[in-house]
Amino acid sequence: xxxxxxxxxxxxxxxxxxxxxxxxxxxxxxPILYTGPGWLAPAAADGTTARLLxxxxxxxxxxDLDAGRRIxxxxxxxxxxLRDDLADESLDxxxxxxxxxxxxxxxxLLGLPWVELSPHPLYRxxxxxxxxxxxxxxxxGPLGRGxxxxxxxxxxxxxxxxxxxxxxxxxxIGLPAVDPGPTAxxxxxIPDLELARVDWPVEARVVGALHWEPTDxxxxxxxxxxxxxxxxxxxxxxxxxGMLEATVEALADLPVRVVISALDRPxxxxxxxxxxxxxxxxxxxxxxxxxxxxxxxLLTKALTRGVxxxxxxxxxxxxxxxxxAARRGSAVVVRPATAELVxxxxxxxxxxxxxxxxxxxxxxxxxxxxxxxxICHAVVEDAAARGAPEGGRRFDPAPTERRGTExxxxxSTVAPCV
Length: 418
Hints:
Blueprint: E1 2-6, H1 11-26, E2 30-35, H2 40-45, E3 49-52, H3 67-86, E4 93-97, H4 101-110, E5 114-118, H5 141-172, E6 184-187, E7 204-206, E8 228-232, H6 243-251, E9 257-261, E10 274-276, H7 280-284, E11 289-292, H8 296-303, E12 309-311, H9 318-327, E13 331-333, H10 339-351, H11 353-365, H12 372-387
């Protein structure tokens, strides 16, 4: 199977795409990654063919548009460029990151089946959840449900505006106004961070978090037997300001060993702390607690290895993810980022074994996922069957059972994993 995998340059989206490319290669397929210039060489070093994703740069006038129009108009421009790049690749499938909408549009222009990759939980609005990003638990009782209805009404106008902008962008490049969506959605998260909903899309499946290490360097923790705290500042521009500085100050006088996982050793780090670029998967094997910004990549890396978290969320979806982990008992949320609050949170997690037990439960649940490569193969096979003279069936995952209760998504709630 020849597959184009399309993802933007942000690490939180490029890394899962690179991990999926490796999974495809291991299955004997040929993935071609289209992404930002910074990941072309690392992808090649990892064995994946990578090409520049054109159209990432904003054009004059983009700054004058609202966010929705800017996203969809840029996606339409990117789709036309990408269509030309993909036309001669003899592709069977396109996999497009959820934020890189131009990948799916290009697939439609070429008449190719496509799959959406969400490197985080499903963030589509739901009639049984509060708006995504609020970090709120689903309301219970008349007052709670009424609150959620009110909040969904307040955000509904923006959602409808975004759908209109998407339709306009589609029409502008010759596609029907109505978006049929992808044939399948790969929800690359762990069940513990997913929520049950009454309207789980039948084409969506939780496939587990997709992790990729950008370096082979191994960081050796400080010697000793004290608890090991791994600190991972957010790679997102929306990370909490002052998170690293507050954490270093908080841990400086605690009886713990500290490793800071960062591309470069930050300034002001005490000599007894190890800092720099290194393989996070290996560090997590020895870590007792992780202090991070609650970005999806690092959060799921920790939880899939049973390591509890002190989350210092910034913007974007970090607040939502931090609150989900906290409700499951595997994280303590700190806001604002002060040394006193971070110090207290680290002590709490280290002293209370319930956080480790909750993280270990998350790790066990992370095994209940579907193979994303198998789903991609099924999509291609079904597309071929539909094109055969005798016809065929549209890709349809196994029937799902749904209920609207709050909790992690597993086979007993929305069955996204079977």
